[in-house]
Design brief:
By secondary structure, the chain is mainly alpha-helical. The chain is built from four helices and no strands.
Length: 76
Amino acid sequence: MIRTTVMLPTDLKMRAERAALERGVSFAELLRSSLELFLARTGAKDSLFADSEVFDRATPPDLSQAHDEYLYGTDE
């Protein structure tokens, strides 16, 4: 694991410590599990497809071969 320093408002830190105590886990474990849950709920998003201005429709079946045409258009 990697040690990380996080600045938290006092109230948030106190509420998180209380929640960890109530659950019988360490403060660090509460943070780890909360981050895992948040990331699982929000899902990982590919930055290419997350921008609706760049790509706003279903994935075309030939995207892997014609990606330049979809991104930049054609020179016709």
